[in-house]
Amino acid sequence: WQTAVGVCLFKLLARMGYIDLGGIDRKAVIQWLPAMILFVCMAYSGSRSLSMTILPVWIIVYNIVYVLIACGDWIIHKKVPTFATQICAIIVVFAAVMVGHTDSQFDDMGYAWMEFHCFCAGLYTLYAQAKQDEIKLNEFAKLFLNFVFTVAVLLPASFITGQIYEAVKFPAIYFGRFYFGCFLSGIFGTMLSVTSIWVLNETSTTTVGIVSTVNKIPMTLLSVLLFKMTHNTENIVCIAFGLISGITFFVTKYQDVSRVAPMVSVT
């Protein structure tokens, strides 16, 4: 739903002149194909994991993605992190493990899908960084291709696997508010991605990183208030510890980047 709505919204925004999809040629599409495959895996595994796990836990475990990216930079680009960053990375992983260990709603398949999602998200980021200068596509075009490819893969796959027929058994499918909610989620999800690109073009990856990291705090609190979920004291402590460890890791990682390439003011 989200990607199908996203494709339509992208075309509308491009037609109205708010975004520029640039020139999309066959060579660029082929070069970007591995990223599109990873994006499909991310979309499907993310949806599956969220249906089986609670959002606060999912947010904490997702911090592992940033650790995987840092490890990839270390191995591929020889960007050796400081000792402080390495310790923070270990703490982030430990926090994710403890959140799962204390989760009273622990689901084996949910966590398996979550781990696969984190793995694909890390690979996606590393591939995008490695091919940034080689692939002649702007960020809007890359995201648009991701959405188109996701619809092209998941729509026929839902018929082949029979999931589309299982959806008929879902009670909410017979209510208009279900489709309205799906439509809104597609709009919000697409606009979140579009505005992130706008912010990234106007500021820096550091600013986007700070906002997305700190944003996890109100998002976690709101999810507890809005959704029905079961928590115990140990799990709440681990979630809070996971939020703090994620922010600390980002701060130390940013300091590593600053030492290599100091920020230059553009104002």
Describe the protein in words.
The protein is an all-alpha fold and 267 residues long. The chain contains 12 helices and no strands. It is globular, with a radius of gyration of 20 Å. The protein starts with a helix and ends in a 7-residue tail after the last helix. Helix 3 (55-61) packs parallel to helix 12 (233-260), helix 5 (83-101) runs antiparallel to helix 12 (233-260) and helix 10 packs antiparallel against helix 12.
In short:
The protein is an all-alpha fold.
Biggest sheet statistics = none
Number of strand segments: 0
How many helical elements? Answer: 12
Elements, N to C (H/E): HHHHHHHHHHHH
Specify Rg, calculated over alpha carbons. 20 Å
**Beta fraction:** under 5%
User: Kindly state the mean pLDDT as a whole number?
Assistant: 83
| Share in helix | over 70%
Distance between the termini: 40 Å
Taken from the alpha-carbon principal axes, the silhouette is globular
Indicate the low-confidence ranges by residue numbers. Answer: 259-267
What class do helices, strands and sheet pairing give? mainly alpha
What kind of assembly state do the chains in view correspond to?
A: single chain
Which keywords apply here?
disordered C terminus, mainly alpha, 267 residues, globular, 76% helix
